[in-house]
């Protein structure tokens, strides 16, 4: 017959026949097993809550992006990408927009297949900007419907990259870290703003993050994850050429992952050399996979790779020219690199903290990120980076999370175009993962501070809804003041033409409108009967003067005189200002 206490010992059967009592060790083991059972039960109950939290965060992000996509008119770059994607579908031609590889536009095209857009003239011989205008406004298509379907694939991809952020942070520091990282990602105004557009910035940055995450996982199973990392890296390079800058870094991380996977304590020099050689071979293999993906992207568009070099391809000499000539990519890709290098030799105008300048400033991107990132998010980014560098448990992750982001930022800071934080969109992605490192601290005060900073960032993001593009944090006055400190895609990318039309119909019906608009939209399509104030005598410009804030930031001569003698009376979307001229 069993004693009652025996049944509580999880399989340890002590019979009473021997007269022996349970030992102290047996009791301790019984308590441990009991606690394990309770924790397992708690984990089972928490799992649905965890999934619910993930779904809620992604749902919030999806609502923000879809709402933004529906309300915004085409931004400056979008018509070119959308029209090029439509040419891919209809004509299988690579002749438009060669300065960007085709994969991002193929992603956009996956939405356009549902639109049944009007046929484009295969003999159309004008610029890619004119092509975008023709597709959206001059071919009988519905531009709102076309743009929404073009934007939806990027929105879906942005949400999927959120799962990558979650998984990466979870791998580093556990489930709570995953939620912290996903929350920062889901509430990032810059990610939401770019993720709601049919552009290439989110896909390129997200594919790079995915590649790095897979390289981190390759530390345990290199044969499985290194080829996948190569595919993701190839997808990034096949979306934007700027991803090439970090390819050597990711190859070194591939070597590091193989070294970690094959390491054996106390191995000799010969064995170390063998492991390093194996890692180098694996990294080269990963790079070859990436090259294959780039070729595949071009072959999907045109299996015959028909190509005639455009007239605008510059002759690039020196190191850049040799790089463009030697890389093992299709000729359209290498000509696209030459066009991009040509852009770097041009003199561009920039605007930072009220100062208009020519050329580029090395500190522009860090300053712009300081303005356009929620303050709570900035604090968690910094804390997470410090944790990765100082906490022994997480230090191995620093080369994977911080080094690629730092290298990309340094390259972007040395670019010629100070046009927006979208050139550093990888920062909110990588640093969301880094920020999750703060969860390793088990002190209650640390959890409270982390939660407060997350709430601060989330509330700041929610308050800017649905005007994510011109967001700036509270320290710089919020979205309504962004145009005083930054310009172009940081605040005014032509996205509010439709909102302007609604405002004029509602508040200023029948008034004379003089418009200086920076964007790709066609005012007449939205019902705006406007005149150009820059081509009329100054004394004739009376009524409403409507000026895009980016144009106002660069105003000189005639436009500056018009603004100096006008009174601001309204603003639209924090990107267009309405003035009254008597």
Instruction: Tell me the Rg in angstroms.
Output: 28 Å
What portion of residues is helical?
55-70%
Category from helices, strands and their pairing = mainly alpha
Q: How many E-type strands?
A: 7
Number of helices: 21
Oligomer: single chain
Order of helices and strands: HHHHHHHHHHHHHEEHHHHHHEEEHHEE
- Strand order, biggest sheet? 4-3-5-7-6
- Cα(first) to Cα(last) distance is 104 Å
List the helices and strands and how they pair.
Blueprint: H1 24-71, H2 78-91, H3 103-112, H4 128-137, H5 143-173, H6 175-186, H7 189-195, H8 201-217, H9 222-237, H10 247-262, H11 269-301, H12 318-326, H13 331-344, E1 349-352, E2 355-358, H14 364-372, H15 375-390, H16 398-413, H17 426-435, H18 444-463, H19 497-507, E3 513-516, E4 530-531, E5 543-548, H20 549-553, H21 557-564, E6 567-572, E7 576-581
Parallel strand pairs: 3-4, 3-5
Antiparallel strand pairs: 1-2, 5-7, 6-7
Helix pairs in contact: 1-5, 1-6, 2-3, 2-4, 3-5, 5-6, 5-8, 5-17, 6-17, 8-9, 8-10, 9-11, 10-11, 12-13, 15-17, 15-18, 16-17
